[in-house]
Amino acid sequence: MPPRGHSSGSHSSHSHSSSSRSHSSRSFSRRSGSSSRSGSSPHSRSSHSSRSYTAASRTQARPRTNQPSGYRGASPVRHYARRHDYVFYPVGWTDSVTGREYKEGYYDENGQYYEDVAFKTGDQYDNVLCRCEYCGKQSKMTWKENMTLSCPGCGAPLTIVSALDEEEPQQQKAAAGSLSASAISALVIFIVAVVFIIVVAASIFSFSHSSRPDYVYSIDEEDPGYASAPDNTEIFGDTIYLDKIDDSTYVISEDGNESYDRKLTWDYGYDSYYDRDSDCYLWYNTDVAPNLWQYWYEGISSDYGDYGWMEYEESGWYIEESDGYWVSLPDFYDKSRLWHIEE
User: Fold this and answer.
1) Count of CB atoms situated within 10 Å of the CB of 220
2) Is the dihedral of CA 88, 94, 95, 101 positive or negative?
3) DSSP letter at 130?
4) What value does the mean pLDDT take over residues 195-200?
5) How confident is the model at residue 131 (pLDDT cuts 50, 70, 90)?
6) Which long-range contacts link 237-244 to residues 24+ away (Cβ below 8 Å)?
7) Do strands 117-121 and 163-165 pair parallel, antiparallel, or not at all (unpaired)?
């Protein structure tokens, strides 16, 4: 099942909304004598193609296999290191589909479990988990090579439990950069939110005094008729019928339920359409321009915790690996079962 919310961005478009809601805001603009929908598609939040990549690009060299599944807790934390790439899960869980139990801790790109991993800073490793073989007490210590550690409780020698590794320098720089930019990002979001509220208020006032009832979908925020647009069900209805173009491409059927190859139904619990045959959830994102469809495939997207929304472009499939960071879908996934709606 997908997370209780959608992606805050997109690989292929530029976000035009700062909304943090599961459903994004859409816009309507007045067009005399017209009531048909125009422009590009509605539903996602950030863009893969609009983002420049830095340190994390190296992680694509390590495809992930045998990964834990069914995780529904707080967002896991990724570490890209010299020996392995790790995903840290803060709580243990049981996969509701397979019944398999997973422990809190770290899993590398091969699915290998580690109770703890300590990363090197300078010439030492911080927060190294150690266990006393005499009294059984566990402690977090700072350790350097050739250093002997003693139990703070009984004085007996300690055994290192943590796996030892060193994070990639470029990732550390990227993390520092994102931290220093967080305050600026918060200020920008606040300013955009204030401007958005003013524009919406002005639009509502304008609409309430307008004698023209006909509207057409638009993403032009400079249009004086800009206001919030409907959700997916108001645009497409609770059911969407698709016609097949080829094995992986579909278009919305013009004949409706009279003739179709695939049927999508709206799932109110996950604010998305659902296709049972492919176990795929999808929604139309209007928080980005151009609007587009985003997909959640169980067995692929579920490997990415709270992220994992996917997009299709002419160059292939992309997946959101972490907040706002999109990568090409790794080759080890079976792409033959993937399908998309032609934009």
Assistant:
1) 13
2) positive
3) E
4) 82
5) very high
6) 237/266, 238/265, 238/266, 239/263, 239/264, 239/265, 239/266, 240/264, 240/273, 242/341
7) parallel
Handedness of CA 55, 57, 58, 59 (dihedral sign): positive
Question: 3, 40, 9, 4: which is closest to 24 by C-alpha?
Answer: 9
Nearest to 2 by CA among 294, 289, 313, 335: 294
Whether residue 265 has pLDDT greater than 50: yes
The single-letter DSSP state of residue 61 is G
Is residue 238 within 8 Å of 265, Cβ to Cβ? yes
Task: Report residue 31 CA to chain centroid gap.
Answer: 35
pLDDT tens for residues 216-257?
344 444 544 444 556 888 888 999 999 999 989 999 998 777
Edge to edge, the sheet with strand 280-285 lists 325-328, 316-322, 310-313, 292-297, 280-285, 272-275, 262-267, 239-246, 249-252, 340-341
**H or E, element range at 132:** strand 124-132
Structure pTM? 0.44
Residue 103 CB neighbours (<10 A): 14
- Mean pLDDT, rounded, for 4-14: 62
CA distance 215 to 211: 12
Lowest mean pLDDT among 61-75, 125-139, 225-239, 255-269: 225-239
In our burial notation (b when 16+ CB lie closer than 10 A, e otherwise), range 82-100 reads: eebbbbebeeebeeeeeee
Query: Which of 102-116, 142-156, 227-241 tops mean pLDDT?
Result: 102-116
**Which distant-in-sequence residues (6+ apart) come within 8 Å of 325 by Cβ?**
51, 53, 56
Residue 114 CA: distances (Å) to CA of 125, 129, 134: 16, 11, 23
